[in-house]
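Translate sequence into structure tokens.
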Amino acid sequence: MINFRDNKGVAILISLLIVAVILSVVLALSAIFIPKIQIASETKNSVPGAYAAESALEWCLYVNRAAPVPPPVMNNGSTYTVTDCAVSPVRAVGTYRNVSRMFEITF
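Result follows.
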């Protein structure tokens, strides 16, 4: 016959073990998914940066082939930098929320 009076505190130990296992599973899953969420947000922020770089390159091509016009103005908070438009290759870097995208053209 089993004497249950000698098994005091076993339930608390089993619950602590179950909580520890659940906590380790949650921490492992968060270590996997948090970097993926950060990559997804960088992808979302890279599109305006790419558009800014493309707009700058289109402006350079237009200035070289047609008439001088003022540089494009970005209304969404993105910025761009362009190398000298008259010298090939031309590089444009568009930046939006610390995510940069670069395009280069030769002519």
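Note: The chain has a mean pLDDT of 89.
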